[in-house]
TrEMBL record:
CDD domains, per the entry: cupin_PMI_type_I_N (cd07011)
E.C. designation(s): 5.3.1.8
Name the UniProt record assigns to this protein: Mannose-6-phosphate isomerase
Database matches in InterPro entries: Man6P_Isoase-1 (IPR001250), Mannose-6-P_Isomerase (IPR016305), Pmannose_isomerase-type1_CS (IPR018050), PMI_typeI_C (IPR046456), PMI_typeI_cat (IPR046457), PMI_typeI_hel (IPR046458), RmlC-like_jellyroll (IPR014710), RmlC_Cupin_sf (IPR011051)
A GO cellular-component term linked to this record: cytosol
Lineage: Eukaryota, Metazoa, Chordata, Craniata, Vertebrata
Principal subcellular localization: cytoplasm
Gene name per UniProt: Mpi
Length: 421
C-alpha cells in the first residue's frame, strides 16, 4: 500500500564528528524530539536516513508497528516506483545523511562499478559489496573539503616553494610536471600521476622526517608573523595537529581546497580524490561501503589501488561546485541532479508568504528532511496529520504528495532525496 510516515533515524558516532550541540546532527535530533538527551562529550557524526542494514530507520506509524524502513520496503517494493524497483532489484538505491565534520575525514576515492566488483571479489573484508559509491554533499553551514587535482600551475608553485614536498616527489618527477604543457592533457595527467604516486608511496621514515621538518619551519614562520600561504601553512598545521606524521598532510599541495557556502554542493563521482575537512552538510550516496583510502584516517589504507584508480585531470576549485537548477514548475524547488542514476536531491525553500504548500508527487520513493520551520502535513497515504518541525524526517512512497500548512513565521527549508530515472 502507498504510505507516508515519519522515521526515527540512526545516529553514527565517529571520532571525527562534532561534539554535543556543536553538531548539526545533535541539534536536529534535539529539535525533532524534545525528549532526546544530547551528551556533550559524544561525537554526533552522521544521521542515516534510509534503509541501510547498518543503520535502518525505524517507522513511526501506528499502522506499521515495530518495523524498519528496510523491512517495509522489502514487503512493499511497489512503494519505490516501478522504474526504481526494477532498476535496483526492489531496494532503495540511496542513503541520505546529515554529516557534522570536526576533524578531517580521510583522503579517499570511490571505485566505479567495474573496479568495485573486482575489489569485492579480491578483498571482501575491505570492500564489502560490488556497488559504486557516488556521493553529493550540500553545505548546511560553511563547509570545507578537498576535491580533485589542482590546476598544474598551483601544484608546480608548491613544488617550488615547499622543498620538503619536492624532496618526496623527487627532482625528475617534479621537473617532468613543470615541463608538461597545457596543450597536452594526457602528458599532464601522466606527469601528475607520477608525482602523486611518488609522494603517496614514500617510505614512512622518509616522509615523517620531511613532514616534521616542514611543520617545524612553518610553525616558526607563523610565530614570527610571516605569511605562510605559499606553503598552505594554516591548513597544514591544522591537519598535522589532527593526524601527526600522516602522509595525507602533503595531499593539500595536490588537491583543491573547496569552500562551500550553505546551499552550495560538490559531487564526488568515481575515482575523484577527496576529503571532508570541516562543517555540516546533507549528503546523498549510492548504497555502498566501498571506500579506497590513503591518508588522514585510522582505517585500512590502500595506496596502490588509490593511485592507480584516480582521475588525474587538473581543474580549478570553482569547477568542483555543483550547481542547483531552479525548477520551472515550482520556484521553491532547486534540483541537484548528478550524472548518476542512483539519486537526486531537491532543496525546497518555502517563503514566509506561503502558508499552504504541496510537496509534489514524483515517480520514486523519497525521504524528506526538515531543516527549518514548522508545518502540519497531510496526505491521503498518511495515517493521520503529521507535525513537521526542524529535525523531522518523512518517508514518501512513489507518486504520493504531501500538503503542508505552515505555521512558522520564517518559512521552511527542506531537503528531499529521491531517484529520478
Amino acid at each position: 500500500p502507498p504510505a507516508v510516515f515519519p522515521l526515527s533515524c540512526a545516529v553514527q558516532s565517529y571520532s571525527w564528528g562534532k561534539l554535543g550541540l556543536e553538531s548539526e546532527v545533535a541539534r536536529l535530533l534535539a529539535s525533532g524530539d524534545p525528549q532526546f538527551c544530547v551528551q556533550p562529550d559524544r561525537p554526533y557524526a552522521e544521521l542515516w536516513m534510509g534503509a541501510h542494514p547498518r543503520g535502518d530507520a525505524i517507522i513511526l506509524d501506528n499502522r506499521i508497528p515495530q518495523k524498519t524502513l528496510g523491512q517495509w520496503i522489502a514487503e512493499n517494493p511497489a512503494c519505490l516506483g516501478t522504474k526504481v524497483r526494477d532498476a535496483f532489484q526492489g531496494n532503495l538505491p540511496f542513503l541520505f545523511k546529515v554529516l557534522s565534520v570536526n576533524t578531517a575525514l580521510s583522503i579517499q576515492a570511490h571505485p566505479n562499478k567495474e573496479l568495485a566488483a573486482k575489489l569485492h571479489t579480491q578483498f571482501p573484508q575491505h570492500y564489502p559489496d560490488a556497488n559504486h559509491k557516488p556521493e553529493m554533499a550540500i553545505a548546511l553551514t560553511p563547509f570545507e573539503g578537498l576535491c580533485g587535482f589542482r590546476p598544474v600551475e598551483e601544484i608546480v608553485a608548491f613544488l617550488q616553494s615547499v622543498p620538503e614536498l619536492r624532496a618526496l616527489v623527487g627532482e625528475v618527477a617534479a621537473e617532468q610536471l613543470e615541463r608538461s604543457g597545457s596543450d597536452d592533457p594526457r602528458g599532464v595527467s601522466a606527469a601528475l600521476r607520477v608525482c602523486f604516486t611518488r609522494l603517496m608511496k614514500s617510505e614512512k621514515k622518509v616522509f615523517v622526517e620531511q613532514l616534521n621538518t616542514l611543520v617545524k619551519r612553518i610553525s616558526q614562520e607563523a610565530a614570527e608573523g610571516k605569511d605562510t600561504s605559499g606553503s598552505n601553512g594554516d591548513l597544514l598545521l591544522r591537519l598535522h595537529s589532527q593526524y601527526p606524521g600522516d602522509i595525507g598532510c602533503f595531499a593539500i599541495y595536490f588537491l583543491n581546497l573547496v569552500r562551500l557556502e550553505p546551499g552550495e554542493a560538490m559531487f564526488l563521482g568515481a575515482n575523484e580524490p577527496h576529503a571532508y575537512l570541516h562543517g555540516d552538510c546533507v549528503e546523498c550516496m549510492a548504497c555502498s561501503d566501498n571506500t579506497v583510502r590513503a591518508g588522514l584516517t585510522p582505517k585500512f589504507i590502500d595506496v596502490l589501488t588509490l593511485c592507480e584508480m584516480l582521475n588525474y585531470t587538473p581543474a580549478p576549485s570553482s569547477s568542483k561546485i555543483f550547481p542547483a537548477v531552479q525548477s520551472q514548475l515550482d520556484p521553491c524547488v532547486y534540483l541537484y541532479d548528478p550524472p548518476v542514476p542512483d539519486f537526486a536531491i531537491m532543496r525546497i525553500e518555502i517563503p514566509s508568504s506561503i502558508k499552504l504548500y504541496l510537496i509534489s508527487a514524483v515517480d520514486s520513493a523519497s525521504i524528506l528532511l526538515v531543516i527549518q520551520g514548522m508545518a502540519v502535513g497531510t496526505s491521503t497515504a498518511a495515517g493521520s496529520e503529521m507535525t513537521l518541525r526542524r529535525g523531522s524526517v518523512l518517508f514518501i512512497s512513489a507518486n504520493e504528495s504531501v500538503s503542508l500548512q505552515l505555521s512558522s513565521p520564517d518559512g521552511m527549508l527542506l531537503f528531499r532525496a529521491c531517484c529520478l530515472l
